[in-house]
């Protein structure tokens, strides 16, 4: 039963890749759509990695764009400054970007051990702003003008492989005993400690792993676009990723993937509605929370949902 | 001399932070939530102030009083409405859900302002009469003096209100234990509504002082001061009124000193670093007290 | 040597002396009852024994080892598990996963095994499922294994908490009002279950309870707490007739 499911996932992954391959190589997809493939995959990586902290660990961080930027700068600075062939250079850049972000994840994890909820949210927000201010004032990385001249070697195949690795690692961890420990911390810290769950270790682990993949996604972003600017990785970017997680359902990896795809494609395809994007994000956050946490509205939702089910069955 | 001038600038900036921080700290202390949208209420207040500033047909006193009163009313109503629509339904929900909703509300206010007024900054006339004090080389603007004076006055009034009135007592009771307060006949919902009303009223005052000093407002004008004010509230000890005042002043001075002597670009980074250090060393803030978690 | 040896344990919160001069000796296999009016400090003692609070004075030996200052995690690893007065389940996880989290204390596998699905992952997961189901069966929860813990009725939630605690393979089990909110039938059934797990798992039990019939029926010794102090310690019959206890419970 479980094996069957896994085979379906693998088959699905291959089919989707072949589909993208066919669309791009035959030129069926428009230029605009082709340019969106990597950003979609970057956002999937960001959303799924953020979901590990928000959905599974149950802590809110508002600095995911900060992790992304640290990784992007570290990885892209490497490829800019050295002159190796892409197939050697890129994997090293991803590892450098990921590890650098992971180090920052560790540093941010330290206050996360002592703080909870609102305090942690503000600390991570502050962290994102600190990173941005520092990058803005650092001349070696181009200051506010950004780091230019990055090889555009991050194509859709590279992006697809990285996304699959991210999904595999995070979803396998969630389904393992380690994932259960992380979820136990989310549901009740005191009870988790009482049955011997190492809260410090798992909180730290979730932060480091999440930051790692955000960092890799950052490198990918830079290697695809050819330029990275501090302003890209601001608070709004962190919120955008959070909206993907919330809209897809906290603690739901498939949901994050779908939300990331929709929220990346929609604003680009419906340019006229671009002005309403922020408004949509805001309403999405409020309405999703009300319908998932208000007892009356939850009941209403369940009633509608179960009626729909009955009709189908 | 420059140092003293910077110190005074910091003091004036800090008292605006303190005023905003008072709103945060009250709401946090009583409703146990970070009202992320508090800063954006200030932004809305500033827009209202600029729209209500109609010079024609009003006496000089009225032309100041009218926009001020409209701004206060608008902010108070907005604060209470936000609480009623977005936060009250989540009274017993997880803190994570409430926080995400609050971020949503903040974003909502910003995006609505963006849609109505566009991203350009709008000029707002100061409602504070022009005057200034010059002592030797030190220059004190009317805005700075008014801000400092108003903030101190409000802090004293608020402390008296919380400690010596019936309603204030109810507020403290709700902050200690919602359930027990309810059993003792305190109407928790209306107490929390009132807290939001007072918090938003303070936001209106902060908005008037803030925009009078800076002269411009944009859709994102409230976000940064709001977050910094929350930092100030945490620094001073969340839930503590003198703490909010102290935290605000300290933060204002740190910021203006960093801008003057280190780097303008890094000033925000320094402010946030201070927050992170404080939270690691003394998570309850300077004047905060420790709570025992019940198991 | 006794399993638990507590000497002059005490804790103050600010000026409040919540527990003072608490002494207790619990032999291996014993079932001890801890009773007293509300606010007497019973749960505080549990929190002291499980490392949630740090005692301000006194010593607590478990298996001859000093436990003062150890964290809840360390204490659980040494073999003490507990339930909570206000149920603390992992609400958004399935019933069986709740138990599995408890099992992980002693049976687990590396991160790599989890990520790459190494053979150890499959083997251990299978073993854990099997053990968890055995435990659930004892508490008659095996039919609800895949349900969310929060969907269980109240009585079953209490049972699940005991199952989760037992999953950590403790030598000492602390039960904080296990029968609270249960009807007499459920309480009687719970008494049987407690006796059963004591035999089957060779576990010593310290029990906080308000239901007198339950306490008197199954406890071998009882300690009575009032305002943080022990006012009586003895056999159920002695406690029943102790004038100090009667005054504490019924007034003069």
Number of helices of chain A: 13
Q: Termini separation of chain A (Å)?
A: 23 Å
The poorly predicted ranges of chain A are 308-313
Tertiary shape of chain C: globular
User: DSSP strand (E) fraction of chain A?
Assistant: under 5%
Order of helices and strands of chain A: HHHHHHHHHHHHH
Tell me roughly what share of residues is in helical segments of chain C: 40-55%
Number of domains of chain A: 1
Tell me the radius of gyration of chain A. 20 Å
Specify Rg of chain C, calculated over alpha carbons. 19 Å
Counting helices, strands and paired strands, the structural category of chain A is: mainly alpha
Strand segment count of chain A: 0
Gross morphology of chain A: globular
Word description of this protein:
The complex is a heterotrimer of chains A (313), B (295) and C (252). Chain A has helices at residues 2-25, 31-57, 64-81, 86-114, 117-137, 156-174, 177-187, 189-194, 199-225, 235-248, 253-269, 277-293, 295-312. Chain A is an all-alpha fold. Chain A has one domain (36-269). The radius of gyration of chain A is 20 Å and the shape is globular. Chain B has 295 residues and is mostly helical. Chain B has a single domain (2-281), classed as ABC transporter involved in vitamin B12 uptake, BtuC. Chain B has helices at 2-31, 38-52, 60-87, 95-117, 142-164, 166-176, 178-183, 188-214, 223-236, 241-261, 267-281; strands at residues 122-123, 132-135, 138-141, 216-217. Chain C is of the alpha/beta class. Chain C has a domain at 4-79 and 170-250: Rossmann fold, CATH 3.40.50. Chain C is 40% helix and 23% strand. Chain C has 10 helices and 10 strands. In chain C, the strands form 2 sheets. Chain C has a 6-stranded mixed β-sheet with strand order 6-7-8-3-9-10, sandwiched between helices. In chain C, strands 2-1-4-5 form a 4-stranded antiparallel β-sheet, covered by helices on one side. In chain C, helix 3 (95-103) packs across helix 5 (119-138). The longest helix of chain C is centred in the middle third of the chain and has 20 residues, at 119-138. At the A-B interface, helix 4, helix 5, helix 10, helix 12 and helix 13 of A face helix 4, helix 9 and helix 11 of B.
